[in-house]
Design a protein that fits this description.
By secondary structure, this protein is an alpha+beta fold. It has 3 helices and 8 strands, in the order αβββββββαβα.
């Protein structure tokens, strides 16, 4: 397969609401395979199609030590609780910020074969589910900041 180019801010592709996938055909399967290759090459945990310039509601997630999960047309159906955590993004390289995310998240989606799936995420998995579904809505984690000055360079944090 192929490693695709990651889109980074201020690329307008990251700000568009992704379109619903109506048919899961060979082109979608190839896209998913390329997204998995791109995710692994970037050492990330999740990747949404808009991050590679494709305006479709598809995300892939690979939690450490777990199988890849493909989400097509995901919808967050429930959020519960709140926590503050450090977040970064492949599309905002070199930066992180402390943001609020849910403790648990429930998502409804289709897998790569079109079968409806329901997932409940806690901890890191909840975090990734929210982050990737945000991408599909044209939202980046930096949009959750109350003040842009809260964003910091990773190198600066490592020096502290």
């Amino acid at each position: 397969m192929a490693v695709l180019q990651m889109r980074t801010l201020p690329d307008p592709a990251l700000r568009q609401r992704a379109k619903r996938v109506s048919k899961i055909d060979d082109s979608i399967q190839k896209l998913i395979d390329n997204m998995i290759d791109t995710l692994r090459a970037s050492s990330g945990v999740g990747l949404a199609a808009p991050q590679i310039g494709v305006p479709l509601r598809i995300a892939v997630i690979e939690m450490p030590g777990e199988e890849v999960i493909t989400l097509i047309n995901p919808v967050v159906v429930k959020r519960k609780g709140e926590r503050v955590l450090t977040e970064g993004c492949l599309s905002v390289p070199g930066y992180q910020a402390e943001i609020k995310r849910s403790l648990t998240v429930k998502v409804r989606a289709q897998d790569r074969h079109g079968k409806e799936i329901r997932l409940k995420g806690e901890g890191l998995f909840a975090h990734v589910l929210e982050h990737e579904t945000d991408h599909l809505n044209g939202t980046l984690y930096v949009d959750h900041l109350e003040n842009p000055a809260e964003l910091y360079r990773i190198e600066d944090a490592q020096e502290m």
